[in-house]
Each structure stands twice: as structure tokens, then as C-alpha cells.
Amino acid sequence: MDCRFEPIVLDANFTDCVQFREDSYFCSFGTSEGYLETIGQNGEVYYSKLLSRLGSPEWGYFHLWSGDELIGQLEFKSHSEIAGFGYIHLIYLVPNYRGLGLSETIHKFLIKQLKLMGCNGAVLSVSRENKRAVSFYQKNGWQYWKPNHNHQLTDFFSIEFCL
């Protein structure tokens, strides 16, 4: 499948960013309860974060497109709790594009971008309930690191890049 990654254009696609984040939150936790606390009642907290970080060399915010259709979103940064490792905040695909083989393309893109940012590895948090994602990460070299005490259903995984 032909797709492309482009930096997020906040004014044109903020509503999509909010919807993608909410669906991701629901997929991770099985509820939207608590979601508004993470973005602000009208998304103002999330908007401010995006606005201040877009274009920063420490942050990556990309949308995934198939033709003219917006099909996904990635959010990551060049630092984490592990020195030299980046952190992936969000990997999101709209439901109609899940299971079509885009995971490998997305994974390669993320690794490439984090390497360009000077990272030697990465960390992410994934819901234990998302067996498909956990299996994908493990198959691609990610290893369980520790439980995520901020979210009872999630664990941290890490990967060291082959340089």
C-alpha cells in the first residue's frame, strides 16, 4: 500500500488529531473516561502542546496519508527516562487501515526518524490488552522493560537500535 508521512498541519487537522488521540485512548484503556483530562475540556491543553512542539528538533509529529485520505498519526520525542533513547507517545491508524500491513512501514519510519534525532533506542507504553501490538513489538525486537505505574493496564517496552 502506498502511503506517505507528512508533518502535522495543526490548523488544517487539529480536529483529526483530537479524534485519533481519543480513539487511541479508548483502544488502550477500554474507556474514554479520563481522556478530557489529558487534552483539556476543549482540547486547549493538547493544542498548546502541539503548537509549542511542532518544528522542534526534539519532537516528531506526523500524519500518515494514503492519497488524499488521512489515515494515521505519530507522536514521538528524542528523549526518555533511558539516556540516549527516544520515546514514542502515539502510533495510530484509523480502523479501516489496521491489519493491512502498514505496521512495518510505520515502524521503519519511526526508527529512522529517531535515529536521525540521535537516539540509540526507544521506549513506548502499550496496553497489555492489545495483544496484537505487543506481539508485533516483540517480533520486531522490543523487550518488556517495566510496568507503567501511571496506567494500570500498560507496560513499557524498549528497543536498542542497531547502528
From TrEMBL:
<dbReference type="GO" id="GO:0016747">
    <property type="term" value="F:acyltransferase activity, transferring groups other than amino-acyl groups"/>
</dbReference>
<dbReference type="InterPro" id="IPR000182">
    <property type="entry name" value="GNAT_dom"/>
</dbReference>
<dbReference type="Pfam" id="PF00583">
    <property type="entry name" value="Acetyltransf_1"/>
</dbReference>
<feature type="domain" description="N-acetyltransferase">
    <location>
        <begin position="18"/>
        <end position="160"/>
    </location>
</feature>
<dbReference type="InterPro" id="IPR016181">
    <property type="entry name" value="Acyl_CoA_acyltransferase"/>
</dbReference>
<protein>
    <submittedName>
        <fullName>N-acetyltransferase</fullName>
    </submittedName>
</protein>
